[in-house]
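Notes from hallway chat w/ T.B., transcribed later so I don't forget. T.B. wanted the structure written out for a chain they're using in a teaching module, and asked if we could keep both sequence and structure tokens in one place. Agreed to drop them here.
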Amino acid sequence: MKDTEKVTFKEAVLWGQDQLSFLGKRVAERNAEDLILHVSKVSLENSFKIFSSSLKEKQWEDYRALIFKAKEGVPLQYLLGTVPFMDCGLKVNPDVLIPRPETEELCEKILKRCEEVPPQSILDIGTGSGAIAIALAQKWSDANVVALDICEKALRVAQFNVEKYDLSKRIKLLKSDLFDNCQGNFDLIVSNPPYISEEEMEEVPSLVKDHEPMRALLGGKSGIDIYEKFSKNVHDFLNKDGLVALEIGETQGDILRILFQNQLGVEVEVEKDMQGKERFIFFTH
């Protein structure tokens, strides 16, 4: 590369794309562009204004550092420190799982199911960054949410996001292992728990298992440990006619349908995601 004073944004992006070429052309292009916009604090809409201008020395140093971290496998979302989710832009870091499109689908399905009678009280178990709690609280202005997580560091991230959207009065964050420290009854109980089995974890890309929190990924030997514990207590916290909505692993539909039907005596609905994989479970009290 040229001397720092002569490196334009366009040249820096091309250099970044070359460094990240192992990711594939389209991903390398997107990541390099996202990182240059991040260090320059310029929106995509205004990027054309700076593309031929030169980077400041600090911008070039910061950009190079981020590109090298990306080469080491650090997820782009952690490098940017934020991720879009529904209508939000959420802070994320290695203390929380990166919210996925499938979890957005879960929220959308919940909103559709509860369109006529929105829940007044919501329990979000394993809130992580607060994604589900915040998305639902934004859509339902009369709802109050209790969001649980076993990890204090994750709760600090969730607190930042809750405060960012001025939802502290309606979202209560609480440290709890499942229902341990929870009180009250709820119209909706929702969770995206860890559901990857030990065997499946061997096939998970290093981009995920080397950087995202293992406690948010691994669901025990068979992947259903959390669901088994969940099934023993959920009825004690669910209002009459209340809804339970869960994200699940793509191979777990049948076994979890049987588990909840046998344990709780409920009719369980298993729904597919946009990729045609069984991904969600719904049942009512």
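Follow-up for T.B.: Strands lie at 82-85, 88-91, 121-125, 144-149, 171-175, 186-191, 238-247, 269-272, 278-284. Might be a good example for the class.
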